[in-house]
User: What shape does this take?
Amino acid sequence: MDVMTYENLDAKLINALLGDGRASLRSLAEELDVSVTTVSNHLRDLEDQGVIEGYTPRVNYDALGYDVTAVIQLKVEGSALPEITDRLRAEKQMISVYEVTGDYDIIAIGKFRDTDGMNSQIKKLLTDADIRESNTSVVLNSVSENEQFELDIER
Assistant: This one.
């Protein structure tokens, strides 16, 4: 393997894992044309640096009956922002919670079995006096969801 390619080993390793997160060290080493020890060392470094945060299955929630996705936008009192985001993060069906700029302060995305479940969870949330305004949109069609992208490899 030439030096130029070796410099891109971390990006190539990440891309290979994006293709198959269950790939063995041996198969990764063969694909990248380096030793198993090299792959192991680079992988450990990427984990230590927090670049790779873990290995987890990709779950299709629709297939499990969670086929209602809601995008919830909230305006909250400034001092309550951390408390509200913590509460949202603690709700198991909230798959993403963002503090954002713009008209709203928080955007949360949740998965629900049905609109009744969605309504009850959202109504429970909206009883908080620190939430000034909310807007909920139900997703009609998930065109792309939870996608990760391969890293560019310098040539």
In short: The chain is about 40% helix and 20% strand. The longest strand covers residues 68-76. The chain has a mean pLDDT of 91.
